[in-house]
């Protein structure tokens, strides 16, 4: 008889349109789940004041980034505003192998790449309850111009189109419930017989 | 943009070797989950004192049972000690369609039948932490003879062989954790994008 008290690790990808409350949800999840770790991305972007190497990002040259990509050292990568961002594979895969829950906070195009190289990964989409609520949240921040809010709302439709690629959708209506749903997904996936450690 | 605040129903099958703590786990689960309902089986067995029609069982004749089976009115059925037991399909499917979580507490041969007619069902196996712990629990009950405990331990290997048929395994080491895992599985499955209500 197999004994499965030792728990399997898990690679969790979290995406969601801006304003869906992804960061706040993940903060709560991290507070409540012991063995969770967030991945640190590699980027060709210059460090901003206060950003620490290995904590906020691994800052690398364009040459080094291209080498990492070519050598399969990245789980996923994407360009954003002229800079490259990618998830180094080694620490994530080592964490999962050691039984940790590794969370990647990335966009849909990255999620597709992760699913391709790690079919066992779990893809979670955090979405706002509806359009009107998202617009209200963006306005409440008081940091975004009308023009920006309009562009964000246009981007929403495009971001929501990726939803069917994901295994799970967590509708963030009440923050505490959304965090609880993400934690439930993590707990459930670790109980999957297909992940059982022999 | 779709809005999925209305939650999908779910058909959950729970099995597990005797002594794994399935009943105690399910009791806790029921206390903590609002919209859960347990299925009432049909049986050809005579009612025992205190058993109520429609609450503990639907008591039917052998002819009626055979008719139900033939008409596809049962999700699953099995013989046990000369009597027939089966799960009437209609109330379960109606409950799930109305957004309820319907739980069937049945054995592996029934679970296989349910999975066949309801591919969307979720199969959960509750298992004891290990052989020694199960033997200790059976002895602690002080209701079982040595002979019966021996036979149960022999049956355990056979029951555990069904584990790979199940989607999830919950190892019942600490009762409260086991209940929490079952609740997490229910919550996670309701967040599946494949179950999203349009």
Q: Report the principal-axis shape of chain A.
A: globular
Number of strands of chain A: 9
Our count of helices of chain A gives 7
Query: What is the averaged pLDDT score of chain A?
Result: 90
- Report the sheet-strand fraction of chain A: 15-25%
Give the N-terminus to C-terminus distance of chain A in angstroms: 10 Å
In the predicted model, the low-confidence regions of chain A spanning at least 5 consecutive residues are: none
Question: Regarding quaternary structure, how should these chains be classified?
Answer: homodimer
What pair of chains forms the biggest interface? A-B, 33 and 33 residues
Estimated helix fraction of chain A: 40-55%
Please list the strands of the largest sheet of chain A in the order they lie side by side: 2-7-1-8-9
> What is the CA-based Rg of chain A, rounded?
18 Å
- H/E series of chain A: EHEEEHEEHEHEHHEH
Largest sheet of chain A: 5 strands, parallel
Which class best fits the helix and strand makeup of chain A? Answer: alpha/beta
List keywords for this structure.
homodimer; 198 residues; alpha/beta; 5-stranded parallel β-sheet; 4-stranded mixed β-sheet; 7 helices; 41% helix
Short description, anyone?
2 copies of one chain form a homodimer. With 198 residues, chain A is of the alpha/beta class.
Produce the secondary structure layout.
The structure is a homodimer of 198-residue chains.
Chain A: E1 10-15, H1 22-32, E2 36-38, E3 41-43, E4 57-59, H2 62-70, E5 74-80, E6 83-88, H3 89-97, E7 101-105, H4 108-117, E8 122-127, H5 131-141, H6 146-160, E9 168-171, H7 175-190
Helix pairs in contact in A: 1-7, 5-6
């Amino acid at each position: 008889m197999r004994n499965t008290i030792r728990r399997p690790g898990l690679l969790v990808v979290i995406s969601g349109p801006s304003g869906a409350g992804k960061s706040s949800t993940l903060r709560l999840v991290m507070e409540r789940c012991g063995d969770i770790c967030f991945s640190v991305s590699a980027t060709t972007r210059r460090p901003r004041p206060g950003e620490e190497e290995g904590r906020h990002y691994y800052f690398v040259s364009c040459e080094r980034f291209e080498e990492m990509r070519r050598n399969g050292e990245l789980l996923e990568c994407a360009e954003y505003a002229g800079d490259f961002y990618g998830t180094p594979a080694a620490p994530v895969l080592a964490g999962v192998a050691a039984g940790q829950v590794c969370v990647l906070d990335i966009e849909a195009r990255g999620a597709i790449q992760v699913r391709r190289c790690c079919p066992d990964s779990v893809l979670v989409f955090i979405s706002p309850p509806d359009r009107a609520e998202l617009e209200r949240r963006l306005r409440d921040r008081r940091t975004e111009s009308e023009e920006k809010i309009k562009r964000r709302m246009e981007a929403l439709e495009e971001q929501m189109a990726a939803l069917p690629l994901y295994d799970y959708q967590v509708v963030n209506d009440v923050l505490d419930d959304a965090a609880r749903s993400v934690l439930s997904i993590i707990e459930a996936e670790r109980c999957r017989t297909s992940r059982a450690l022999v």
